[in-house]
């Protein structure tokens, strides 16, 4: 089950000065490679006591301020972020032998930003955000479907669905981003941007 990666060497001189600009380049290249859901990322959180947990979510926005995803604030990940704001993101672009690993702090986005995104979602996804008490135990699939059906009757297609009060965005503000490119003989490129004061510096890591 071993694969040899054959890719071009990533040189420091070819990197963007800003890591978010570099991420935008690689993200576009991943999308252009027809990867399935290139915005899928593994979000790892931990409790105040250090017990970790991970799950895959979809990146919905990114800019100079960081990476944004949306969730129920009662979910396990959101509750752990309330206890411990330090998180890690992993973009696993295996078909093109690349990964991006982000570490930073997460915090809630403003309600206006949450509302704007919520209203852009498909009607069914809006209802789903109300139907699911994410990460909570539920008796059966039938109960979940019943909740959804009741909401669909209350808010038919075309009627505005209110934004759930316990649902919203989380922005991860990075303090380090590692760009990993696989190469043959396991001599991979690992180039990490680290925030040094207010400036970013790049360091190369051994594979």
Keywords:
27% helix, 35% strand, alpha+beta, single chain, 9 strands, nine-stranded antiparallel beta sheet
Describe this structure in words.
There is one protein chain. With 207 residues, the chain is an alpha+beta fold. The chain is 27% helix and 35% strand. The protein contains 5 helices and 9 strands, in the order αββββαββαααβββ. The protein has helices at residues 19-32, 76-83, 111-120, 123-131, 141-154, and strands at residues 40-46, 52-58, 61-63, 66-72, 86-93, 98-108, 167-181, 189-196, 199-204. Strands 1, 2, 3, 4, 5, 6, 7, 8 and 9 form a 9-stranded antiparallel beta sheet that branches. Helix 4 (123-131) crosses helix 5 (141-154). The chain is elongated and about 55 Å long.
Put the structure in a nutshell.
27% of the residues lie in helices and 35% in strands. It has 207 residues and is of the alpha+beta class.
Quote the distance from N terminus to C terminus.
19 Å
What is the ordering of alpha helices and beta strands? HEEEEHEEHHHEEE
**Structure class:** alpha+beta
How would you state the average pLDDT, rounded?
A: 95
Helix-strand blueprint:
Blueprint: H1 19-32, E1 40-46, E2 52-58, E3 61-63, E4 66-72, H2 76-83, E5 86-93, E6 98-108, H3 111-120, H4 123-131, H5 141-154, E7 167-181, E8 189-196, E9 199-204
Antiparallel strand pairs: 1-2, 1-5, 3-4, 4-7, 5-6, 6-7, 7-8, 8-9
Helix pairs in contact: 4-5
């Amino acid at each position: 089950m071993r694969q040899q990666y054959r890719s071009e060497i990533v040189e420091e001189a070819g990197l963007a000065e800003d890591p978010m600009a570099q991420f935008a380049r690689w993200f576009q290249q991943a999308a252009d490679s027809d990867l399935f859901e290139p915005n899928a990322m593994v979000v790892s959180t931990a409790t105040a006591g250090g017990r970790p947990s991970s799950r895959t979510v979809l990146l919905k926005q990114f800019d100079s301020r960081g990476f944004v995803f949306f969730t129920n604030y009662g979910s396990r990940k959101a509750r752990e972020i309330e206890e411990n704001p330090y998180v890690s993101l992993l973009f696993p672009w295996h078909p093109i032998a690349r990964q991006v690993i982000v570490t930073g702090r997460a915090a809630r986005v403003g309600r206006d930003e949450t509302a704007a995104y919520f209203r852009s979602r498909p009607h069914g996804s809006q209802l789903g955000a109300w139907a699911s008490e994410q990460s909570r135990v539920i008796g059966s699939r039938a109960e979940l479907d019943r909740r959804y059906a009741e909401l669909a009757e209350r808010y038919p297609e075309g009627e505005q669905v209110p934004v759930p009060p316990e649902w919203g965005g989380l922005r991860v503000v990075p303090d380090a981003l590692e760009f990993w490119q696989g190469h043959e003989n396991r001599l991979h490129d690992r180039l990490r941007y680290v925030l040094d004061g207010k400036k970013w510096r790049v360091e190369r890591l051994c594979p």
